[in-house]
């Protein structure tokens, strides 16, 4: 079932979460181990992230450097299929522009449709470590909106190089979600143009938005208001990631371009005990979620990053 149908059908706040494919070499059981503890909260859907290849340089005979592409976390499509098969829970594979030509994107879409997957979170992806800024593949999609448009075309039965339209797709078309940034996307010069690009993604066919993680609800509330004022009407699902280690005080702002509120950062700074840090993160998450539910959010989407313990404790307190 589509995410948007889950939202429309429900009178209360839904629970969903995101997992990431394990490092290559591990089995599907490591995925099940992170899902099983969260089943009792009846997740409406489970997102599976996509991780593009990285590049390494190997020194070859004669001293020249060979650029080699390495995949560290493969398997998004297969994991989605395995989850649907084992748990009968809807999945949302993340699909990115980076590393994909439009032909490869079409092949991925055909596979997803064949497997009976109804949803896609359409993203641009970040630059690979060896590039200063994002570079699309030759004949690839440049922005998430271009990917949204390609999915919509396929939903309408229009493939890239086939003259004739086929009937629209057998799953009735993918439900498309896109990303939003309550603290602004880091590359965008200002909030107004970030919102303009977000609105364009919705007008192109995105049916809901999932936000980047945040720790200050006021930023989310303000973001929702700015979206509504600029005519974005679709559901805006907040993304929550409980802080669980002291190191994350530096890594989360660095990787996700978000702020950790002073009160939370101070509380974590004051202790050397990692167990206590986890407790602080859980308590902050519970208070955040309670306030979000009161605000009437359609769903709370948790970033597990492969660890379900803190999410389980928060979900236990609020669902
Ligand atoms: P876009 O919507 O393309 O926006 C990127 C930037 O370009 C923004 O600054 C935007 O304002 C600007 N922009 C957009 N359209 C235009 C235009 N037409 N002209 C000029 N500028 C434009 N990354 C992964 O690699 N794998 C994942 O699984 C993944 N999951 C994510 C899930 C969520 C919920 C979120 C919030 C992010 C996720 N990301 C993931 C990270 C994401 O790929 C990055 O944040 C990326 O930098 C931007 O992606 P986007 O889809 O928002 O891009």
Biggest sheet architecture: 8 strands, parallel, barrel
Q: Going across the biggest sheet, name each strand in turn.
A: 1-2-5-6-7-8-9-10
**What do we call the CATH topology?**
TIM Barrel
Number of domains: 1
Measure the end-to-end span: 22 Å
Q: Please report the total strand number as a whole number.
A: 10
Fraction in helix? 25-40%
Radius of gyration: 20 Å
Shape summary: globular
Poorly predicted regions? none
CATH architecture: Alpha-Beta Barrel
List keywords for this structure.
319 residues, alpha/beta, TIM Barrel, 8-stranded parallel beta barrel, two-stranded antiparallel sheet, 11 helices, globular, binds flavin-adenine dinucleotide
Could you give a quick summary of the protein structure above?
By secondary structure, the protein is α/β, with parallel strands linked by helices.
Q: Can you describe this structure?
A:
With 319 residues, the chain is an alpha/beta fold. It has a single domain, classed as TIM Barrel (Alpha-Beta Barrel). 40% of the residues lie in helices and 18% in strands. The chain is built from 11 helices and 10 strands. Strands 1-2-5-6-7-8-9-10 form an 8-stranded parallel beta barrel, surrounded by 6 helices. Strands 3-4 form a two-stranded antiparallel ribbon. Helix 5 links the parallel strand 6 and strand 7. The longest helix has 22 residues. The radius of gyration is 20 Å and the shape is globular. The two termini are 22 Å apart. Flavin-adenine dinucleotide binds next to strand 5, helix 5, helix 6 and strand 8.
């Amino acid at each position: 079932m589509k995410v948007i149908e889950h939202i429309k059908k429900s009178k209360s706040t839904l629970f969903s979460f995101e997992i990431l494919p394990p490092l290559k070499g591990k089995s599907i059981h490591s995925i099940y181990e992170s899902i099983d503890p969260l089943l009792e909260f009846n997740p409406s859907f489970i997102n599976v992230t996509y991780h593009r290849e990285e590049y390494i340089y190997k020194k070859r005979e004669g001293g020249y450097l060979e650029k080699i592409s390495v995949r560290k976390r493969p398997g998004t499509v297969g994991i989605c299929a395995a989850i649907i098969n084992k748990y009968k829970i809807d999945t949302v594979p993340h699909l990115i522009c980076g590393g994909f030509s439009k032909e490869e994107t079409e092949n991925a879409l055909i596979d997803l449709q064949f497997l009976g997957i109804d949803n896609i979170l359409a993203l641009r992806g970040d630059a690979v470590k060896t590039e200063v800024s994002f570079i699309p593949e030759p004949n690839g999609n440049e922005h998430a909106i271009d990917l949204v448009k390609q999915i919509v075309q396929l939903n309408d039965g229009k493939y890239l190089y086939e003259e004739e339209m086929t009937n629209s797709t057998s799953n009735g078309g993918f439900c498309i979600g896109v990303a939003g940034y309550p603290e602004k996307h880091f590359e965008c010069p200002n909030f107004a143009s970030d919102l303009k690009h977000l609105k364009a993604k919705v007008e192109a066919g995105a049916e809901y938005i999932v936000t980047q993680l945040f720790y200050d609800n006021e930023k989310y509330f303000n973001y929702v208001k700015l979206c509504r004022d600029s005519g974005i009407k679709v559901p805006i699902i907040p993304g929550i990631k409980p802080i669980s280690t002291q190191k994350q005080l530096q890594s989360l702002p660095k990787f996700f371009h978000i702020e950790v509120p002073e009160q939370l950062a101070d509380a974590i700074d004051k202790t050397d005990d990692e167990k206590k840090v986890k407790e602080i993160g859980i308590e902050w998450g519970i208070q955040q979620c309670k306030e979000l539910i009161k605000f009437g959010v359609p769903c709370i989407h948790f970033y597990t990053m492969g660890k379900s313990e803190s999410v389980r404790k928060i979900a236990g307190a609020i669902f």
